[in-house]
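Morning run. Coffee first, then this:
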Amino acid sequence: MPAAAVLYARKDHVAYITLNRPEADNVINRELAQELEDICCQVNQDDEVYVVIITGAGDGAFCAGSEFGRGEYAPGVATAVAGIDCPVIAAINGDALGQGLELALACDLRLAVEKAHFGFPQVARGLIPQDGGTQRLSRIVGRGKALELILTTDTISAAEAFDIGLVSQVIADEKLAQEAETLAGTMAARAPVALRFAKEAVNKGLDLTLEQGLRLEADLYFLLHTTADRSEGITAFLKKRPPQFKGR
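And here it is:
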């Protein structure tokens, strides 16, 4: 039986998704796309998952693009990842190119190793990014820089990606997994419903007017007052003990 194109595991409240085609630089094919979509659905159905880490197998690339060429539409793996309700960390262990970069952009936080490179080569091939790249990149790094990267097809280093806000941390290769797990553990210790609502407020608010965004924020804030986790947070604070959140 061939190896799974995507590996999945959960430890405590952190889920680990690993793109598992290291011999092909974790390039997206139909098997990987379908398995990843199925796993994203599984994550959303598991109340015990508070945070997700996505990385690539091997040390060559996080994801170097897709096998889909001219005239064939690549499945929307970035759309599937963006649909995960809880926070998602991209532990970018190597190059993130083409649809691989689109996948990374669909995550909420991006940590990268020093050797990683980032770029959209599609225009040089007569295509454009089609899995959310033109929309998410501009929202993260701004219109001007997004246009520069997409139209020139230039590849940038991890240091440059950090400078423009594409990644939040650049980490030595051997420390990436540890740093990603530490970050995930910090978030997983927080109230899981509040984590999901905070993500929703920020992401949906980008497509709203300020007034509408403030209204969404207020609605989600008041909804949190109806949760058991909110009561637990208050009780734990008053008793000076760590909270034991249940995601309810």
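The first strand starts at residue 6 and ends at 11. Good start to the day.
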